[in-house]
Amino acid sequence: xxxxxxxxxxxxxxxxxxxxxxxxxxxxxxxxxxxxxxxxxxxxxxxxxxxxxxxxxxxxxxxxxxxxxxxxxxxxxxxxxxxxxxxxxxxxxxxxxxxxxxxxxxxxxxxxxxxxxxxxxxxxxxxxxxxxxxxxxxxxxxxxxxxxxxxxxxxxxxxxxxxxxxxxxxxxxxxxxxxxxxxxxxxxxxxxxxxxxxxxxxxxxxxxxxxxxxxxxxxxxxxxxxxxxxxxxxxxxxxxxxxxxxxxxxxxxxxxxxxxxxxxxxx
Length: 267
Description:
Blueprint: E1 2-5, E2 11-14, H1 19-48, H2 54-80, H3 85-90, E3 92-96, H4 104-120, H5 124-130, H6 139-144, E4 146-150, H7 168-173, E5 175-176, H8 181-193, H9 199-213, E6 217-218, H10 227-262
Antiparallel strand pairs: 1-2, 3-4, 5-6
Helix pairs in contact: 1-2, 2-4, 8-9, 8-10, 9-10
């Protein structure tokens, strides 16, 4: 996972494609290009037969190879902003080093160098360059300032805090103040990642967080309440109350806007 900082100082986590994924996508693209060459050659041969002389045939073959192995990949990458048939199948996309979409200049540099490192040298140069950098870049990527990233990243749904049944009656009447942002984030992260912690770390961290959160809750939970259940109840109730407050505020704003819109036409 690589980090990209945007102009607004927002950190984006972009997952660079592995060497294996890039190799498979290139093989798919090359196979598709070979099939296209064979189809065009067969179509031209069956249509024109023996009409063309050898010199013209060689010229047409050269034009066909340039069209299929250079013009088509560059055009597809430019129009799709870094995608191709192989990358679409593997869930990959070519982007700039800053995370933005590529343009014709980037696609053209990559396409020109692909003729050398992938087709003429049978991928050997691309392999040697890719294995020695962390983003599996080939030579074309290094000169164009691009790399391949995963577009389809499987993410597990976050675990939402739920009020334990034994604490329903208490939390409904408790005064739960707004938690500081830093503390609220730590509690939310703990709730979502608690199942992946060791028993000792989970118990210790729950106790420490419960001690910090208890300052913002009154009255305290019933005696014998487990710290983790206390945290789940507080964070879930705080979430529900904030949602209700924001929903009510939105409704009031909508009603006010509706009345203001009707005022000039009330006469």
